[in-house]
Amino acid sequence: CSSCLFQFHLLFSVVLFSWASFHQYRCHVILAELRAKDTEAYGIPYGDWFEYVSSPHYLAEILIYISIFISSGGGYLLGANCLYQILNFSLICTPPTHHWYLKKFDNYPRRKILIPFVY
Q1: pLDDT class of 73 with cuts at 50, 70, 90
Q2: What does the buried/exposed string (b/e) look like for 64-87 if buried means 16 or more CB atoms within 10 Å of the residue's CB?
Q3: Residue 39 CB partners (closer than 8 Å, separation 6+)
């Protein structure tokens, strides 16, 4: 039934939004606690999605905007443009962060830049 499919995509988008928001919050807490330990030195973040990628808060942001796009039905130009801009921003900002970690820390763990197991 068409109304069941409509409800499924809304439910999926709410679950995705909540899951990504939770992980984005956790990643920001990890980063904040990392700086709170020693205000003069940088450290390697560990835990949550940091085990897989160097910039998990950006990955969560992308998933949040994907969930908003899905919940809108995917047919709105403004929603598509917002998602496109977030993807562009993330793809531009995450490689320098990843390379900074690699340069700064000899023992930096093997992680992808933004998308686990892919990029």
Answers
A1: confident
A2: bbbbbbbbbeeeeeebeeebeebb
A3: none
Share of the chain above pLDDT 70, in %: 91
Q: 28-34 long-range CB contacts below 8 Å, 24 or more apart?
A: 28/57, 31/57
- Tell me what the pLDDT averaged over the chain comes to: 90
Q: Write the secondary structure of the chain as one string of H (helix), E (strand) and C (coil).
A: CHHHHHHHHHHHHHHHHHHHHHHHHHHHHHHHHHHHHCCCCCCCCCCHHHHCECCHHHHHHHHHHHHHHHHCCCCCHHHHHHHHHHHHHHHHHHHHHHHHHHHHCCCCCCCECCCCCCC
Question: Which distant-in-sequence residues (6+ apart) come within 8 Å of 119 by Cβ?
Answer: 112, 113
Cα-Cα-Cα-Cα torsion 64, 65, 66, 72, nearest 10 degrees, comes to 110
